[in-house]
């Protein structure tokens, strides 16, 4: 118990927030596999964090790029709230080492799983908002997501568009996308999508929406055909 308290204190400092109710933070880092509840607070906070992150990143982009059109802003936004971006921030702050997991998830290497890390990152952002309001969440998100913005100031190209243009330039049929799996609770589903281009091995993408899963699959296939 003492070790957990110390870890939570350290994590609070990393998040730039002193929690009034430290149990909210504990709930955010307790994976469903390690929870004794019939309903899981982790997933509820993840649901909240997803919405809070989307709002704060949208604000940040509008302020940072006042002359860009909505289309370019939308591409940036998708890139910054996707699973990979969340997992990258989670790794930057070493969130994985704070997670409370079941033995099975621990053995499966879930501390380094993009999906687990991105879910936990959203739950932590939800906990910041729940305990300290929008300003507590905004303080953390603006600092950490600004680092992602600095990496690439040019609006990212939509992977689906890039793949389609590549296929057309090589006189191939348009990429074909198929949902192969859908899992998770209704408020936070996870989609698995397969994309096929004639003459190449299919690529698989995972995302919180059909669109994000398609984008992920397209990005992987672009990398494959470029090698």
From TrEMBL:
<keyword id="KW-0699">rRNA-binding</keyword>
<keyword id="KW-0255">Endonuclease</keyword>
<dbReference type="GO" id="GO:0019843">
    <property type="term" value="F:rRNA binding"/>
</dbReference>
<dbReference type="InterPro" id="IPR036389">
    <property type="entry name" value="RNase_III_sf"/>
</dbReference>
<keyword id="KW-0963">Cytoplasm</keyword>
<keyword id="KW-0479">Metal-binding</keyword>
<dbReference type="InterPro" id="IPR014720">
    <property type="entry name" value="dsRBD_dom"/>
</dbReference>
<dbReference type="GO" id="GO:0008033">
    <property type="term" value="P:tRNA processing"/>
</dbReference>
<keyword id="KW-0694">RNA-binding</keyword>
<dbReference type="GO" id="GO:0006397">
    <property type="term" value="P:mRNA processing"/>
</dbReference>
<feature type="binding site">
    <location>
        <position position="122"/>
    </location>
    <ligand>
        <name>Mg(2+)</name>
    </ligand>
</feature>
<dbReference type="GO" id="GO:0003725">
    <property type="term" value="F:double-stranded RNA binding"/>
</dbReference>
<dbReference type="GO" id="GO:0042802">
    <property type="term" value="F:identical protein binding"/>
</dbReference>
<keyword id="KW-0540">Nuclease</keyword>
<feature type="domain" description="RNase III">
    <location>
        <begin position="8"/>
        <end position="133"/>
    </location>
</feature>
<keyword id="KW-0460">Magnesium</keyword>
<dbReference type="InterPro" id="IPR000999">
    <property type="entry name" value="RNase_III_dom"/>
</dbReference>
<dbReference type="InterPro" id="IPR011907">
    <property type="entry name" value="RNase_III"/>
</dbReference>
<comment type="similarity">
    <text>Belongs to the ribonuclease III family.</text>
</comment>
<dbReference type="GO" id="GO:0046872">
    <property type="term" value="F:metal ion binding"/>
</dbReference>
<feature type="binding site">
    <location>
        <position position="119"/>
    </location>
    <ligand>
        <name>Mg(2+)</name>
    </ligand>
</feature>
<comment type="subunit">
    <text>Homodimer.</text>
</comment>
<feature type="domain" description="DRBM">
    <location>
        <begin position="158"/>
        <end position="227"/>
    </location>
</feature>
<feature type="active site">
    <location>
        <position position="50"/>
    </location>
</feature>
<keyword id="KW-0378">Hydrolase</keyword>
<keyword id="KW-0698">rRNA processing</keyword>
<keyword id="KW-0819">tRNA processing</keyword>
<feature type="active site">
    <location>
        <position position="122"/>
    </location>
</feature>
<comment type="function">
    <text>Digests double-stranded RNA. Involved in the processing of primary rRNA transcript to yield the immediate precursors to the large and small rRNAs (23S and 16S). Processes some mRNAs, and tRNAs when they are encoded in the rRNA operon. Processes pre-crRNA and tracrRNA of type II CRISPR loci if present in the organism.</text>
</comment>
<protein>
    <recommendedName>
        <fullName>Ribonuclease 3</fullName>
        <ecNumber>3.1.26.3</ecNumber>
    </recommendedName>
</protein>
<dbReference type="Pfam" id="PF00035">
    <property type="entry name" value="dsrm"/>
</dbReference>
<dbReference type="GO" id="GO:0005737">
    <property type="term" value="C:cytoplasm"/>
</dbReference>
<dbReference type="GO" id="GO:0010468">
    <property type="term" value="P:regulation of gene expression"/>
</dbReference>
<feature type="binding site">
    <location>
        <position position="46"/>
    </location>
    <ligand>
        <name>Mg(2+)</name>
    </ligand>
</feature>
<keyword id="KW-0507">mRNA processing</keyword>
<dbReference type="GO" id="GO:0006364">
    <property type="term" value="P:rRNA processing"/>
</dbReference>
<dbReference type="GO" id="GO:0004525">
    <property type="term" value="F:ribonuclease III activity"/>
</dbReference>
<dbReference type="Pfam" id="PF14622">
    <property type="entry name" value="Ribonucleas_3_3"/>
</dbReference>
């Amino acid at each position: 118990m003492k070790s957990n308290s110390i870890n939570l204190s350290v994590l609070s400092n990393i998040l730039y927030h002193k929690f009034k109710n430290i149990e909210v933070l504990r709930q955010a880092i307790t994976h469903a596999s390690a929870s004794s509840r019939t309903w899981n607070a982790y997933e509820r906070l993840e649901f909240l964090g997803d919405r809070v992150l989307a709002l704060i990143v949208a604000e940040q982009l509008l302020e940072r790029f006042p002359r860009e059109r909505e289309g370019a802003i939308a591409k940036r936004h998708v890139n910054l709230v996707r699973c990979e971006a969340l997992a990258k921030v989670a790794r930057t702050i070493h969130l994985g080492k704070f997670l409370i997991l079941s033995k099975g998830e621990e053995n499966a290497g879930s501390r380094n799983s993009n999906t687990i890390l991105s879910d936990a990152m959203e739950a932590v952002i939800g906990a910041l908002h729940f305990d300290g309001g929008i300003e507590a969440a905004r303080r953390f998100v603006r600092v950490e997501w600004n680092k992602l913005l600095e990496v690439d100031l040019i609006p990212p190209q939509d992977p689906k568009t890039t793949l389609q243009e590549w296929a057309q330039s090589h006189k191939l049929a348009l990429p074909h996308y198929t949902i192969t799996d859908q899992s998770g609770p209704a408020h936070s589903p996870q989609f698995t999508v397969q994309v096929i281009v004639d003459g190449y091995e299919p690529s698989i993408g995972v995302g919180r929406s059909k669109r994000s899963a398609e984008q992920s699959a397209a990005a992987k296939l672009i990398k494959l055909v470029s090698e």
